Amino acid sequence: MSALQVTWFGLIGVLLAGYIIMDGFDLGVGFWHLFARKESDRLTMMASIAPYWDGNEVWLLTGGGAVFAAFPKVYATVFSGFYLALMLVLFALIFRAVSLEFRHQSDSTCWKRLWDFAFGIGSTLPALLFGVAMGNVIVGLPLNGAGDYIGTFFNLLNPYSLLIGVTGLAMFAFHGALFTMIKAGEDLAKTALGWAKISGLIYGILLSISTVVTVIAFPRMIANYIEFPVLWLLPVIMLAAAWLAWVLGTTGKTWKAFMLSSGAMLAIIVTLAVGVFPNWVYVSSDPTLNLTIANASSSPLTLKTMLILALIGVPIVLAYTVWIHQVFKGKAEEGVSY
Q1: What is the predicted pLDDT for the residue at 128?
Q2: pTM for the model
Q3: Structural domain of residue 195, as residue ranges?
Q4: Contacts of residue 77, Cβ cutoff 8 Å, sequence gap at least 6
């Protein structure tokens, strides 16, 4: 296990954290869009994410590309095992993007309702399935000696992974409700406050339950924590940030709550990364076949070349993200179409 391999393990974690934080509020807004009753509210919610959503998905594309280049065996195994689930996510994201562009092309009520539904489901399904995928990373995948997935799609829908999936959906819903409170006018912000109170409470409870279940059901996830007890601060910070975000969000301190919600998401990724390290994929059928950062990585030359490119590209993405939020800061104009 080399320093380059460890570096890329961490860098991919950063990219995935960037995605769930940045696109998380998009997905959350899309989820609550299903529950918005007024046409003006639906328009405002779509307009609030208009400057950001496509740029936010760059984090997902970059993370997937990084896994493909740095750990090709992991990419091949995960994408074959999660093939149907990933296709569902892909189609959902496509329909979400298309709905944003197509909804305002006709004044027909049926037309608008169709694309409203597509936007809501296209946001909800990925939010749920990303958590299911994370749950299966912890549970492990049944693979044969060639590294091929030997289970079915329904094997992925095990109780633990569904628990993580619902927790992830609640997390994105809470994040999206906070973002709506920040961007919307007074009336919609009050409605979003109610959404934040409900989803934040469910998120905090489910995250706490998921943490306890993980520690009890998967002792291998705490091996690194037992060896280095100081690391137990990570799940403590994770839970504290999530609960404090809910408290602040329900008392009107929305920006602080949003930042803490983002911090909790980052802590979730770090906590998970520490738990699985140095593994990428647990093989439930034969643990000797586990894919680790040592046996699944590309050559040192590939990792080094990619690191140089990443050190150039990632700061550009970060700078663009900061710039776009600065340009479009403030409230979304109420009732204005995307």
Answers
A1: 92
A2: 0.91
A3: 3-326
A4: 141, 143, 147, 148, 149, 281, 291
